[in-house]
Records
---
Amino acid sequence: MIELLILIPAGAGILAFFVASDQSRRVLLISAALGQSALSIATWIVPPGPAFGGWLAEDPLGRLIETLTSVLFLAVAFYAVAYLREEARQLHSDFEEGFIFSNAREASFTGCLLLFLAAMTLVAVSQHFALLWVAIEATTLASAPLIYFHRHHRSLEATWKYLLICSVGIALALLGVFFLAVAATSPDGSTIALMVRDLRSNAQHFNAPWLKAAFVLLLVGYGTKMGLAPFHTWLPDAHSEAPSVASALLSGALLNCAFLGILRAHEICVAGGLAGFSDRLLLVFGLLSMAVAAVFISGQTDYKRMLAYSSVEHMGILAVGVGLGGAAVFGAMLHVINHSLTKAMLFLVAGNLLAVYRTKNTDGVAGALSVAPVSGGLWLLGLFAITGSPPFGPFLSEFTILKAALDQGETLVAVAYLAILAVILAAMATPALAMAQGTPPEQVAPAHPKSKALSVVPSILGIAILVMGIYIPPVLTRALREASHLLG
Amino acid sequence: MSQVINSLLVLLVLTGFTLLGSSRLAACIRAVGFQGLLLGLLAILMQDGKLSAAGVLLPLTTAVVKGILLPWLLFRAMREADTVREVEPLITYNVSIIAGTAALALTLWLGQRLQLPSEPPSSLLVPAALFTSLAGIIVIVSRRKALTQVLGYLALENGIYAFGTTVALRLPVLVELGILLDVFVGVFVMGIAIFHISREFDHIDTDKLVALSDVG
């Protein structure tokens, strides 16, 4: 069953390159996304057994990330079909510089989307560290063409930075995997396969200096992909230049997969009695990411870049949550879900606003509530949710982390955490309100999104964010508790 | 046997210096390709005579991909991009070489300090591997051309692979092939990106890629 989770999108992805008709290719995208997410929800009812000798298996942590990725992909797929229909014209003029450009072939875009999903699923269900590495590098390769959908020099620059910076980062993570293998080798030369379960149960006997070095390399390597400062430099460019469909998946799904890579390494450290070491590192990089994001969000004039830096901030929050340990880990796991839903919605809405106002500059957008009521309303809702205002989901998870920090007596961390959140709230609320209210620029005519999916999909995500703030289903609470149990 | 391994490792270090000091793009591509061949040979020799089919075929595949296929791809990218065949560093070659020497000293010192659980086949192995990676990183940050940065990435990867030969014998074949496939597809995609960059900008200098920035 686990194989199918990967084979469905992989097969459909390869097929998509060869389907000539746009219509049937879009049907293929939707049906693959539907089939795969139905299957991953089924794994909650009938837990699948391990496959390929235990290499692929679903543990609580992997299942959480896998299902979140599938469901989010399904939502984005519906949006993508509508978006691709609108974009089907041959030539486009650039919003910022006015030149004419064309898009990549829709077939390769759809194919890469599906292969991207297959790679992310493989990340979530990998139980072997080297296979996990292969899968994470595969996500980079499958997603790079998505960023270069609009064929112009800015998206090309973003794609190049993404490819090079992430590949170098992930190469360091490979060195980390080898270090882990060294750490797992006992003095008599006998060694342990790099399976998460085996490593965890033997971690007490590992060579501590090598294990520490391995964790540092894995943190830096996968942290580059996850967007932890100071390795985040590719992230704002890629997120702002990619089409909104791709940005939503990069932020909502891909960053979680990279985070999972770090969590696996952290699991081994916790089991090996080095929790103190990995906790501190996660805490430092988490707070640093939040602080760097706060600096660049303040005064940011490009709203897609603002969302991208907000992703850096939230990856920092996740790292802080896991670094604090205890109840904060539960908060971090909950925040993974809340951030993904909210950020995916925001990027999709940003795409709608971009289509109406034809600018990414916050100053160029005003009166969104009257010009595009649904998108304008969701934009406002999303920005308040992402900055941690009640009653939305992110508030609940951010508050859980804060409370855990205070309970543990980490007052300094709590104060810094709260101060940064306050700065970001102030920095994001001003443009959010200015964009939603006021009189729209003259040349902008009231526009109804041509396709319903463009407003229905973000609306559904918006409702989910609201629900997550009020009621968390018991089955989810149990899953989150099981997942956080592995992480100390 | 250890004599042969040691000489191959010295050659590996020399290719690192070639990469750092050469002004010709073609020479750099050849140096990185030669590294690939060396890695394949090293991986076979490290096995101490206990040869299995997978133990020979896998290093051979590595040698073919990294030593022949990838250099061929890069030569093609160089011709298609029709670029000036100079490396165009941001720092002078002398500084590159000095940085390389410092990196070598650092890795030799590290090699003394790092205690591997089981004795590696050669005491030079860890320093040579880490030096190759560091040389790759120096090239990535100090060169202007996209193509040279890919060469730096490959050298980084080669160094890590060389380190991996001490432990990688215990990695399953499928995973090793997966790693190799990722590197190959990675360089392939980068090659396509270079082609687009050269068409879009009439050059492949990455220091002109500065439209996107929040600093200054």
---
Amino acid sequence: MSASPLSMRDALYEAPGPKMRKRIVAGTCAALMLIAIGLALVVRQFYVTGQLEPRYWALFARGTTWSFLAQGFLGTLRVAVTAGALALVLGLVLMLGRISEIGWLSMASRLIIDFFRGVPSLLLIYFFFLVIPKYGIRMPSFWMITLPVALAASGVLAEVFRAGVNAVPAGQTEAALSLGMGDAKIMAKIILPQALRIVIPSLVSQLVVVVKDTTVAYVVSYPDLMQNARVLISNYDALVSMYFVVAIIYIIVNFAINQLSIHLAHRENAPIITKNTTNPV
Amino acid sequence: MGIGELFSTYGENYLQALVQTWSMTAISFACALAIALAITVFRVSPIGPLRIVGDFYVQVFRNIPGVSLLVIVTYALPYLGVTLDYKTCAMVTITMVVAAFASENLMTGINTIGVGQIEAARSIGLSFAQILRNVVIPQAVRSAILPMTNLLIGTLLTTALASQVPLKPPELTGMVSYVNSRSIGGIGAFFISAIGYAGTSLAIGSVGNLIDKRVRILR
């Protein structure tokens, strides 16, 4: 959601007259009724199929359930934070390679960036899980999930960084050149500090993609939130309730990250760069 | 196993996998656009509850991890009396998620138009339908081309989710485990699938850029 969607939404309509106001009220009532009926049907379906029975929900009254889920959540955090940090460094390096004046380096960086952006993270996970062990390389499950997630994110982050660098006005480079600064110094002292500031909100919003990518950690049986939920499901035989609760936890976490990113974007007065994000998984 | 040997043994399967990936991408994206259109109409309608439903849909489905939704659709819905086959499950999941992002793109497209233009249109006496048809939609569609291109690539990558359910024939990501469970596919099995994805994204990207260059509004 960009700057202020509400203003445009409201601008589409004139201030309603008495007739229109009546129609809006009628529409509102009809919509409310339809929504209520829809919700009632969903709840009824849960009730009819017996999914509201207390035995499916009693496990959420136990402390052990929540502490086990919390352990899983810590696992998710560990993977997300490590992958995010790795992707930051790698993305920065790839971006610097991409914008460098050296022909082959720029070409190679571009190829790597496009590859990681054009390939699903799940495929990269299968690469680390199925392909690499065949060459006799053993790796703990933590790295089998963290490395592919980091690689997938690094391609996108490189493009985000590049957009940030491009957003720094060209006059700044020209001014620095006329002061006699070298290319490397201009990048380190003039452009990067400003570019990083611009991209902070976008980096935060990319964290959502990283968190989503970690949910396939069960492929490599790393105990993250989803994997621990699956363990609880096989222990308590409460599949429906558990999957819904876990989904809600993920939604709340990602919603919070998105809100933080929007908040930062407003404070820094920098837009969230979504131009190059192609991975909604 | 070398690439050549892989092709002679599994060439047919890889072709089927590629078609599977493409068909899931195309169908899901088309359905997602239709849903996104409805959701976006909800979100700009003057009826409060509909706006809330539209916003709620977008917040839920842009924030839910694909796998989390997929396991609900595939394994939880049958308990609630809704049983779909595996391919449909995967496509429903992809469609729901992509629709949320598509609606966001449409909203951004609408927002770039600017309040001033609407006010100007109204002051020369255009009706609401005319404003939509002549001012809002042409501009919103044009500025949404590039984001939608990226979203189509995103949809392509999201179809990898389908490797988490037993699909017949498997799609490109599922092929890697299919090959590896039968013979030592090694790095080649991975790269054939990767090229399938990267090549398709490249093609989609260049077509999108071409269309965008032709219809872009220079501001």
